Amino acid sequence: MPLPSVETHVKKIGFLSFGHWSDTPHSQTRTASDVLLQSIDLAVAAEELGADGAYYRVHHFARQLASPFPLLAAVGARTSRIEIGTGVIDMRYENPLYMAEDAGSADLISGGRLQLGISRGSPEQVVDGYRYFGHVPPEGQTDADLARTHADVFMQVIGGEGFAQPSPRPMFPNPPGLLPIEPQSPGLRDRIWWGAGSRATAEWTAEQGYNLMSSTLLTEDTGVPFHELQAEQIQRFHDAWKDAGHERTPRTSVSRSIFPIVDDRDRAYFGQSSSSDQVGYIDGGVARFGKTYAAEPDRLIEELREDSAIAAADTLLITVPNQLGVDYNAHVIESLLTHVAPELGWR
């Protein structure tokens, strides 16, 4: 499918942390407490540096960030401008009503800066882990169906419409009519993203009215470079959005590992890290993974100029090696914002 030419434009640039911790000598995050507190500190540092977003992965049964809302609320309380999000919440695990209460509260604490990425989720650490959380797909449905059903309920209730029959003998007086989930945060519904790993899912995402969070991998391979396949995915999303007749302008994001090499630390960590696309298998199916960009700024600028998916998206999330600590990751963000982004027209 031929793609139209896309001019690079000013972008929102944030970081995406996987939130790993390990009790090893080379890790700056030895415990869950380290990861949580450093995640907050990195968001504060990123805001001070002029970045636009702090996003966090969500994984269960792993030494990584899990329940996101306490962290999102804490980041919201410590910052004033930066967007705060997830990439992504696995909706198979979620009670959508309780999640709506958490999301509304975190969004109000942040002053309306929440950008929630949700999806079916990524490969799990355990077999059907969502079942341990009490969620089982109904007969004849898949776990993907379960995730989309939970997402449908979540989107309905954050819209504020009443649905619960009030008690005739309430503890406190009720307003008239059916009761909604509380608290409500106006505008949150337009700031929900779906993490899409294929072109077909991107089209479905547009039809549902979600923003598009293009995955760090795509669960299909057509033989073209990752960035071209991802750019096609974004174009299909925009086409489907237009066909659906939605009134607002949607947002799209891509994630990349980008390391400007500007000093000896960068050279030691990432001097040999530049790579090419990889094709592998996820959950028994083929998948294409994007490359790591690591080079001196001049070379990096030329390589990134050829990335058609970054050019097509309005938001770029930089995956950070969180176990290297806050100071080093702030340095990576600053290097990108200072030495690379202006030359590419992202700033």
UniProtKB/TrEMBL annotation:
Taxonomy, superkingdom: Bacteria
Domain Luciferase-like: 18-268
One of the Pfam families matching this protein, by short name: Bac_luciferase
PANTHER family: BLL6902 PROTEIN, LUCIFERASE-LIKE MONOOXYGENASE
UniProt name for this protein: LLM class flavin-dependent oxidoreductase
Species assigned in the record: Aeromicrobium alkaliterrae
Organismal lineage: Bacteria, Bacillati, Actinomycetota, Actinomycetes, Propionibacteriales
